[in-house]
Specification:
The chain has about 375 residues and is an alpha/beta fold. Helices cover about 30% and strands about 20% of the residues. Strand 8 and strand 9 form a beta hairpin. It starts with 9 loop residues before the first helix and ends with a strand.
Length: about 375
């Protein structure tokens, strides 16, 4: 049975519309045009299905463009935020933009519109909007908390399913079943027996899923979502006694996690957190293969990684990937995936979960997966 979920009020709608209007004013725009997609930036303003176009102009209520009348029919009975008179059928905003001098655009490249309306100036407004959206409201955080609880239930179901003689896909199925039974929409990548923590080989080439044995570690990334609010957990499950390098890598990853928690406070910058976390693993003798911290709700800030990889792997490929959004100051209500990992001697350990920046201290939402789980 699906868990009982919090809902959004009209006050939450008005708060979000005010954020959009504030971006228009602060950036010297005449209008803001938001193209939706899988991440649902349009849904943030409509409480409707993703894939529409939303226009904010001055203090007027926003206008939504939907692709077909079927989209509009689907609205019946739903608690949506726009009135019928605010909705247009069709996804071409050009006729609505002719009177504006400067339009901020989110979701498409400005050049795609500039060719059709040469007298209108278009520029990207994603970064200003991202900064405005990153601090979640109390209503949003209530939903994020619920998503995180389900994420922990998914991790626990995977732990309970993992044992010698069980195939990887059976562990994956246990996690997916738990999430869907609770009304969530989880996506899980799972792997064992490899440094690469991501999709298992059987998900993209023809061979059977691996069967677990004593000494294995199941590594899984759980991306759980409800109403486009997301949490992430890095699940690590030990099957019996594992290699000593795995235990050492777990200790380093946990130290990295604790370092990230200590820095996730108002007044710090995202870049400080990412830099110190990466440095913690490197100075302990490990190396990193992917970001260890990133923003959620919305995504956009991504920690750097890969510095010194060649020193450990002896390979010439790779290189450092720099942090995106390093200068963004942390504010209460921001949500992050704090998911450190460490590779030692050909073995990888990863752990962590979702953390909220609190007024005085970080709030851990997935403490269960901030440790090595034992099957």
């Amino acid at each position: 049975m699906a868990d009982c979920l919090p809902t959004y009020s009209r006050a939450e709608r008005d708060r979000r519309w005010s954020l959009a209007r504030a971006v228009v004013a602060a950036e010297g725009l005449d209008a803001l045009l938001v193209y939706g997609g899988p991440v649902g930036t349009d849904t943030y303003f409509t409480n409707d299905r993703p894939g529409s176009v939303v226009l904010f102009a001055g203090v007027a209520d926003p206008v939504q463009l939907v692709r077909s009348t079927v989209d509009d029919i689907d609205r019946c009975g739903d608690d949506l935020w726009l009135r019928p008179d605010q909705i247009r059928v069709g996804d071409d905003p050009a006729p609505l933009l002719t009177e504006f001098g400067t339009v901020g655009v989110v979701g498409v490249h400005p050049a795609q519109l500039a060719e059709r309306l040469p007298r209108t100036r278009f520029r990207s407004a994603w970064i200003p909007l991202l900064r405005a959206m990153l601090p979640n409201s109390a209503e949003e955080l209530a939903l994020v908390d619920q998503v995180a609880r389900i994420g922990d239930a998914i991790a626990a179901a995977m732990r309970d399913a993992a044992r010698p003689g069980v195939a990887e896909n059976d562990v994956l199925t246990a996690g997916l079943d738990e999430g869907y039974l609770r009304g969530a929409q989880p996506r899980i990548h799972i792997s064992t027996g490899s440094v690469a923590c991501g999709r298992s080989g059987w998900s993209h080439r023809p061979h059977a899923p691996r069967v677990l044995a004593d000494g294995d570690v199941v590594l899984a990334e759980v991306r759980n979502a409800l109403a486009l609010k997301e949490t992430r957990s890095q699940v690590a499950i030990a099957i019996g006694e594992v290699h000593r390098d795995i235990e050492a890598a777990v200790a380093i990853a946990r130290a990295c996690y604790d370092t990230g928690l200590a820095l996730l406070r108002p007044g710090r910058t995202f870049g400080e957190v990412a830099q110190v976390m990466e440095k913690t693993v490197r100075e302990a003798g490990g190396w990193t293969a992917r970001p260890m911290v990133r923003s959620l709700n919305p995504c956009g800030l991504v920690g750097g990684f890969g510095r010194g990889t060649g020193d450990f792997t002896g390979q010439v490929y790779g290189g450092e990937v720099r942090t995106v959004g390093a200068d963004v100051a942390l504010r209460p209500g921001m949500t992050f995936a704090v998911v450190p990992h460490c590779v030692l001697g050909g073995w990888m350990a990863s752990l962590g979960g979702t953390v909220v920046v609190g007024a005085d201290a970080p709030i851990e939402l997935n403490a269960l997966t901030a440790q090595l789980l034992r099957a």
